[in-house]
């Protein structure tokens, strides 16, 4: 069979860390994702956007195998999760870390204990080593050492995000999934978090899959962006591809009033175009 247009534009397999092909997810009679395809490439920061309630978190949970799908295939590190043996799944699960949109940390555990949760589940190492590794993660994400003994209720929103990131990094994953990591942070805190993500990508060679509504993150941190719309990936590519796209939602998102404050004028081909309200 000749390759389809989508296949021709896909990178060679060794660059692709996650490949979703023709994924369909329904809840009862409601179809959330319909024939969605997406590649995530090794070492990139991929920003995943789309209107609220379109299925960004559902896709993330589906990739992680936490949500059943009705059609399609998802390969992570070349392993088709549906056909994988228990041992293969276990290996894959140790190579990813997740910062969920809700319930980032267990409230009854300290930061140190939270970070140790995945270690206890997957690693057979001594308690001393576990504690040492957990403290290293706390340092890695830029938290003060005394954050280790604190409970989530004693932390600020920004500290919770960092602690949750530390837990996502507990097993030294190849890829981290972040669902709205900067939501609720002030712009400076959000920019600091983006910097941290970029540093980790550069120093650890991490791949980052980031669901976000944060335009600053999309413009500053992401190498590529994928837009979810009409139950599939509508557009996928670097920022320039988004800026040149004519889909109405993509246009209003990337050329709306909020975007104009962050998109440099000379990068924005539609800059002179007025909003529908003429402003
Ligand atoms: N377990 C479930 N059972 C039934 N419906 C669900 C379930 N999980 C999600 N949905 C529905 O799927 C749709 C997509 O939800 P999802 O949480 O993925 O949106 P989202 O794009 O992440 O939105 P937001 O930007 O607000 O986080 C919503 O209509 C939601 O109600
Ligand atoms: Mg969501």
Write the layout of secondary structure elements.
Elements: H1 5-9, E1 16-27, E2 30-41, E3 45-50, H2 56-63, E4 71-76, E5 79-80, H3 86-94, E6 96-99, H4 111-122, H5 127-140, H6 157-168, E7 175-179, H7 187-204, E8 207-211, H8 215-220, E9 224-229, E10 232-237, H9 239-244, H10 248-255, H11 257-260
The structure holds adenosine-5'-triphosphate and magnesium ion.
The site of magnesium ion has 4 residues, from helix 2.
InterPro entries: AAA+_ATPase, ABC_transporter-like_ATP-bd, ABC_transporter-like_CS, P-loop_NTPase
Keywords: ATP-binding, Nucleotide-binding, Transport
Organism: Aureimonas ureilytica
Write a concise synopsis of the structure shown.
This protein has 279 residues and is α/β, with parallel strands linked by helices. It is built from 11 helices and 10 strands.
Instruction: Outline the biggest β-sheet.
Output: 6 strands, mixed
- End-to-end C-alpha gap: 51 Å
Q: How many helices?
A: 11
- Looking at the structure, the CATH topology is Rossmann fold
Mean pLDDT: 88
Q: What's the CATH architecture name?
A: 3-Layer(aba) Sandwich
SSE run = HEEEHEEHEHHHEHEHEEHHH
The radius of gyration is 19 Å
The hetero molecules present are: adenosine-5'-triphosphate, magnesium ion
Shape: globular
Percentage of β-strand residues? 15-25%
How many strands in all? 10
Pfam family, one: ABC_tran
Family: Belongs to the ABC transporter superfamily.
Keywords: ATP-binding, Nucleotide-binding, Transport
InterPro entries: AAA+_ATPase, ABC_transporter-like_ATP-bd, ABC_transporter-like_CS, P-loop_NTPase
């Amino acid at each position: 069979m000749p390759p389809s247009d989508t296949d021709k534009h896909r990178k060679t397999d060794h660059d692709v860390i996650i490949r979703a092909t023709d994924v369909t997810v329904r809840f009862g009679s409601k179809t959330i994702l319909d024939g969605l395809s997406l590649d995530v490439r090794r070492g990139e920061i991929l920003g995943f956007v789309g209107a609220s309630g379109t299925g960004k978190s559902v896709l993330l949970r589906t990739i992680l195998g936490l949500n059943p799908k009705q059609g399609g295939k998802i390969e992570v590190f070349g392993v088709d999760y549906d056909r994988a043996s228990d041992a293969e799944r276990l290996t894959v699960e140790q190579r990813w870390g997740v910062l969920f949109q809700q319930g980032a940390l267990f409230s009854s555990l300290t930061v140190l204990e939270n970070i140790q949760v995945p270690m206890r589940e997957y690693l057979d190492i001594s308690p001393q080593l576990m504690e040492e590794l957990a403290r290293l993660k706390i340092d890695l994400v830029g938290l003060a050492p005394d954050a280790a003994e604190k409970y989530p209720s004693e932390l600020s929103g920004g500290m919770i995000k960092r602690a949750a990131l530390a837990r996502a990094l507990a097993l030294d994953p190849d890829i981290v999934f972040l669902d709205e990591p900067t939501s609720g942070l002030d712009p400076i805190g959000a920019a600091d978090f983006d910097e941290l993500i970029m540093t980790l990508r550069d120093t650890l060679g991490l791949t980052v899959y980031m669901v976000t509504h944060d335009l600053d993150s999309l413009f500053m941190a992401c190498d590529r962006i994928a837009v979810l719309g009409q139950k599939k990936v509508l557009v996928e590519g670097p920022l320039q591809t988004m800026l040149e796209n004519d889909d109405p939602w993509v246009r209003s998102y990337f050329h709306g009033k909020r975007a104009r404050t962050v998109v440099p004028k000379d990068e924005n081909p539609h800059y002179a175009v007025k909003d529908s309200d003429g402003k």
